[in-house]
Every structure is written in C-alpha cells, then in structure tokens.
Write the structure tokens for this entry.
Amino acid sequence: MNEKPSCRVHLFRHGETANSKEVCFNGHFDVGLSAKGENQFREWADVLKDAPLKAIYSSDLDRTRTSARLLGEPHQLEPVTYPELRELCFGAWEGLSINEVEKQFPQQLEERLKNIEAFQVEGGETFEQLKQRVVPRFEKIISMHPNEQIALVCHGGVNRVILSHLLEVPIKRIFRVKQDYATLNIIQYYGDEPVVELLGGTASKVAPALDKKIAIQ
C-alpha cells in the first residue's frame, strides 16, 4: 500500500442502555444509558485522553450523544450529531423486548432471521435502507478530516453496515460482526482505501496496547 495514512476513525458503539436487562429493539426509541454505560465511556475517555482527536460525531439519540459527550470531555470537544447515524428504525417493534415482540407479532422474528437484508417491520426500515442513509453521511464525515483522527459513537446496526460496506460483506452476513456495548473499531484510511485495524476492542485490552504504542499512533 503506497498511500500515506490519512483519516483515522475510532468507531464506537454506545454504552450499555438503561433497559439492557432485556434484549430490546430500541431503534429510534430514545433510551438513555445505565450507570454502567456512562462509566464505560468515562473509562474510554481516560484511555484516549492523549489521542489527538479533532472531532467527535454521534447520532442525535441520547445513548450515543451522552457516550460521545463523555468521550469528548478530556479534549473539550462537543459531539456533532446527525440523525442519519440513528439505529435501524424498528417501527412497530420500537422499544419492545424480544419476549414482547414474540407475543405481539408471532413468527415475525423467525421471518427476520431468514431474510435479514430485506425484512421490514411495519413502519420500520430494512438494513439496506439503513445502509443507504448511513454510508453517505459516514463518507461525508471522512472527507472533512483528511490526515486527522476522529471518533464516531453510533449503534450496533449502524456500525455493522459501515463495517460491512468497508469490508464488502453482504448485508445478510452483518451479524457475523460482533458489536457489544462500548466496543471500539479502528479504521485507518490510506488515501481512499480503508483498513480495519481493530474490531470490537474493549478499553481493558486497548489500554495496554496504547502503553506499548501498538494500537493508536
């Protein structure tokens, strides 16, 4: 690869949510963080306090905005928010747990698993539609920061469509990419060519690498 390093992206999933005791289809449902979720990003803020971040972006939902605000405090950076970076809209499933969906919408979960790329809840989006709104905004953000380091705090579905786009993984395979709460993905651009250097990193594992000057230059 002959190109010099250009934009370096720290792509996070938001911290643990206040309703995390049950797996919920939060989508655009504006749930906040749990105390643990806030602490996860205080830890990340400490780990990355010396990283030369120039900007922090997030969706306009509370769980990402709060995570991004905590991350930006050591850098005196306020997050710039975009609605295009919101999670997949789950329509009639918004805010419901898996058990509630199974009771209210029998067999739809099974249909979704069989047809990940095209399944659409009433009033919701497909993953292809999510990709069509997320990727152009992501690429616009990248174009604004040549030769700079930035952070994005997004959602599990959003991160998966970004990573699947960069890695040319079909939408139907996106759940092969694990995205736990508060995990970090690092994308290093060389000109227009992205290299995913880290997938699903945790603060406890990234911090020692930083001490050895391995992870983030």
User: Anything to note?
Assistant: The chain has one domain: 5-21+33-89+126-211. The first strand starts at residue 5 and ends at 13. Residues 213-217 have pLDDT under 50 and may be disordered. Residues 5-21+33-89+126-211 form a domain with the Rossmann fold fold (CATH 3.40.50.1240).
